[in-house]
Amino acid sequence: MNSIWHKDNIDWQFPLINDHHDTKILIIGGGLMGLLCAYELQKQGKEFILVDARKLVNGTSANTTAQISIAHDDLYYKIKKKHSIKKAQKYLAEQIKGLNHLKQIIKNEKIKCDYQETETILGASQKQNIDILREIQAIINPIIKTKKLPLEKSLFNISEGIIFSNEAIINPVKYLNGIINILKNNNCAIYEHSKVTKIKKKGTQYEVIVNDKFKINTEKIIMACHYPFLLQNLYFAKMYQSTSYVITFKTKKKLSASYISLDSPYYYLRTYDKNTLMIGGSDHYTGSTTDIHKCYYLLQKKIYEIDKKAVILDKWFTEDSMALNFLPYAGPYSKKHSNIILMTGFQKWGFTNAHAIALKINNLLQEKYQRNKLALFKNIKNYLKLVFHSVNGLFISRLLIKSEALKSIKVNSGKALRYQGKNVLVYRASVKEYFLFKNKCTHMGCTLIWNDVDKVWISRCHGTIYNKYGHVIYGPGIYDLERIN
Ligand SMILES: Cc1cc2nc3c(=O)[nH]c(=O)nc-3n(C[C@H](O)[C@H](O)[C@H](O)COP(=O)(O)OP(=O)(O)OC[C@H]3O[C@@H](n4cnc5c(N)ncnc54)[C@H](O)[C@@H]3O)c2cc1C
User: Fold this and answer.
1) What are the tens digits of pLDDT across the range 163-194?
2) Domain spanning 1-119+126-144+167-238+321-378 has what CATH number?
3) Which residue in 366, 354, 272 sits closest to 321, CA to CA?
4) Strand, helix or coil at 413?
5) Beta strands 205-210 and 214-223: pairing type?
6) 281 ligand 1 Cβ < 6 A
7) pTM of full prediction above 0.90
8) What is the helix (H) or strand (E) element at residue 255, kind and residue range?
9) DSSP state of 233
10) 67 CB within 6 A, ligand 1
11) According to the CATH classification, is domain 383-474 in 3.30.930.10?
């Protein structure tokens, strides 16, 4: 599931934690959000430590499509419907700040990240989506000027579109490499392969355990680990993970703008380089489908609609955290843990959100917890969907698993099945070699599904991903699957 950005072969190395430490601020997570917080703190000369469970930039930020855009699908419409037009416009104003901040950093720090200014078209053809498009334009027009026209109609096959100007596309790994180099040159304390396995509150301080062994005592924690791994305050019932698939393809067709479709099946499109385009979409609730081939197939179909002679290059998938109330969360974790600042729920629009949040880092570190921010029952339809999803992952799916012979599994493939009376996950490595695991995610005990394209196990509930040998490669789960043979 490595994305095209991994080909750039950019490498950095930071040590593993091998001692106890004291610090004022601990940042958990070295993706886009954690690194931007680190960047802002180092600029102010503040003391901090950053730890990442794996290598830096290996989570969602390494698999993103990096459209630097404020054309956030139908979010403005959803926020207006759920909250108010004022809230939707406030969200937009924050995104504009985030977009400008990113551009400023690239310019000031002279980061080489294949930055390219572009327009983004948010388009639709289906009647109900054209109505939504018009509502979006009414919400955003008092704040920004957008053009309305069906540009490149033949390529995108749309009836109506809004054009957002002064946007950009970048190479996300090169951009974050630029940030990492600044941190490195300023001797910031960064540790890779250093996973937070426990957080204990001790008076006004926290004792954070890394790799089950070393302690970091800290006053504040910035939790930028994408999806919160602590179970307190029920974040798992206020947000969910959504999976999105990406394919790059060689084509002679050129785009003069990036594109986001409001129609179903959902997709988005950008340029990668002069001969290559990138398409993403087929989004679904993480863990809700086992037909991964179909998810990629829908995008492939779109590719061949664009160009019959296109040549498929890379394929990958990744997940992002979606808030039930459609607003990203940046603030104290809970009343009890007001010194843990959680940053999550970017709804596939991490770049502008993360930059806007990083700008406010000092205020956030002082903010008091306000109960209502991710209110549980505000969106009853989505909430019930989430409850069903969890009940299915924890109980129903378990009952539906069938007994099958291990030999029914193809070589280099996996399956969830009943074997000798137990629910197990089996990966068949060769004709005779099988790896058997308990069918129980180490996060909250949900069942898992096998993704046969990317050869990974995915939790049905909260999106933890394990490689075929059961090693966790993507949180919120912390520990590997339990091997039983
Ligand atoms: C397919 C797809 C396309 C997207 N395209 C766009 C786009 O075009 N434009 C846009 O703005 N946004 C886009 N996004 C969204 C954006 O990429 C994400 O919102 C953003 O990258 C999230 O960054 P993050 O730092 O929160 O998470 P991550 O990049 O996942 O970083 C979290 C880090 O925390 C670490 N971690 C986790 N648990 C622990 C622990 N216990 N201890 C220590 N470290 C830990 C992980 O190892 C990881 O490195 C897209 C998302 C998807 C899924």
Assistant:
1) 999 999 999 999 999 999 999 999 999 999 99
2) 3.50.50.60
3) 354
4) strand
5) antiparallel
6) no
7) yes
8) none
9) G
10) yes
11) no
